[in-house]
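Much of the work behind modern protein science is quiet bookkeeping, done one molecule at a time. The fold becomes a row of whole numbers, each drawn from a learned catalogue of backbone shapes. The protein below has been through that process, and both of its lines are reproduced in full.
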Amino acid sequence: MTPAELQDFTHAVDGVLSAAWPQARAAGDDPDGTALRRVWAAAAEYGWTDLASDDALDAAVAALGRLGRVACPLPLMDVYVTARLVAGEDELAAGLADGSIRPVVAVVEVDAPTVRFVEAAGAATHVVLLRDAEIVVRRIIGVTETPGLARPSWADVSLAPEVTWRATPGATAIEDAKALLRLGLAARAVGAAERTVEFSIAHATERVAFGKPIGAFQAVSHRAVDGATDMRASRALIGEAVRAHLAGRENWPLAVQLAVQFAAPAAVRAQFGAQHTLAASGYFEEHDAPWLFRRVNADVSLLDAITLAAGDVADVLIASGHGLPALELGERAERFRTEVREFAARFAADVPVVHLDERNNEELRAAAVERGYLTLSWPEATGGRGASVEEQMVFSEELAYQRLPLSAKGAADMLGAAITRHGSPAQQARFLPLIASGRFPFYLGYSEPEIGSDLANLKTSAVRDGDEWIVNGRKMWGTGADRAEWVWLATRTDPDAVRPHAGITVFLTRIDRPGFEAQNHTALSGEISCSTFFDDFRIPDEDRIGEVNGGWKVITEALAQERVIMANTAASVLRLLDDLLAEVRKDPAGTAGLPGSAKRQLISELAARLQAARVLVDSSVRATATAGGGGRLEAPMAKILATQLLEDFSEAAMRIFGPAAALGEGVPDVPGRGAFEYNLRLSIMQVVGGGTIDIQRNLVARALGLPR
């Protein structure tokens, strides 16, 4: 389906459910399956039960998400996979489509007369037994409810001795069906959890405690942000898995496994967090939250009954010799990826893991300038290539993966965009060629000792004196200031302006003038950052970018780009994962244990989180481009997920490989050539640089409508 068609379909599903199963509380009012049979009849009437005939997996998964939002256990994926398995059997297919045959699927080892843990048994007519390479369909002749977490209750069902239909579609078809069943359960659980998160955010804006809305307390708002981030990443991963299946990609089952691996625990985590925010208001069954809680946790628990022969994510990655599935960015972008990989290969041989100084990489800079790679994102009218956002992302990913630092590209992306939009024609003529040359060493003059990332309250002052400005103040943590020639400097030019965003002006100026001093500090990573001091430092007005007191627009233009760059940590972690897998494959059992081991479970979790970060980075880049520098949700969400992952991944490598992973690059035969210990040290900077992830959570909270 096209996006518009899928949206219309989703609205139609909501309309049917509002009449037939109007709210999550309906889950507690249907002990005999009457309401569920009514929903099933409506599903047949409107063609939901015939989606498999059109290979409309996207519609089936979308519908399951909407079913989850009202805690409705209609087993739509069971119908979908059954229809795929019985294709060519006209009578069965017709019965599935018109709703006269209402199947539930059970994965079993033997063809037994009874089946346990059956969902929607009160409305179903048949059980489809999946075992090895065989499918057996039997009629339900008895239902015994088994009350517990699930509502409507699961059941033990008795099956007719006669076989309605039997076939041997093969092990691959059975495994594919099981993968889709797992995807359906995850999609429904995510739908339920996401709805509860929405309830909790609304509650946090309305519920007042201690004189203010509870959403103003960071403990509450950050919990809501984490839940919303998990749900957005889960939906993106599920969507990516659906696209992989519809495109017929060979590794689509791995895409499904990654989606389920991340989304299932994320749904449980988000549900608990939302329940904590709702507190007593969401604890009693007059509210929808308890029924959604049952839906989330019941669906996730059913996943354990559907195991795949290939094993978990780690088992697949270790055995296959391949890495994570690529995110398809379109034919044009993928052609460009081939070009960039060929370009990067010239410089990637024996490239060091640790880059503390780029000055020895002059050949890379010159080659990138020659090909116009630095100014990919610039309009052609300003000397750029006018590349699509997908092409820009490809370039950033490939260089990050190959560990080829190109700070000149950061200057072009961050400063170039701001100068193009806010600089005068004279400034564009002056600065853009310098930046495009790649010979523009600069640092960001943003953070200050007392304010950190709170740029709206910066104190470094700039006072006008004729055609100059006199600057006094101190900036902190200026990475690259030890070798910079320029500073992108944010100052306060109106101390009486109404804050937070007024009274700020931005300059781009040289620092080789009286009144400037830098003091070096060595970071945990070994990198040099500086405290820089401005003492009656004079800046000509011609170096002012944008309007006087209008600097906040200029800052946000550059910050949006910076956050996307920081979030692209995901590409670096992808390289770390490939390095880790390469080491594990040398001795899988000895290094990571047998399938099911704690180390393999850890690798599965990290791989799924990485894929989630990658799809959010993709969303953030697209949103930033389409929203004119925006991406108010996606960009900070991407950073939250990706940078936390770098910490956890590097620390996990220590547990997987032991003390050897704590050795540096210069020691022979170190796992990952020292990349694990270096990135463990670097990870703190990734989390706090460009605005700590706590600040990013505040940004997301505002975008979600939570109070300050």
Summary: The chain has a mean pLDDT of 92. The domain at 442-550 is CATH 2.40.110.10 (Butyryl-CoA Dehydrogenase, subunit A; domain 2). The first strand starts at residue 103 and ends at 107.
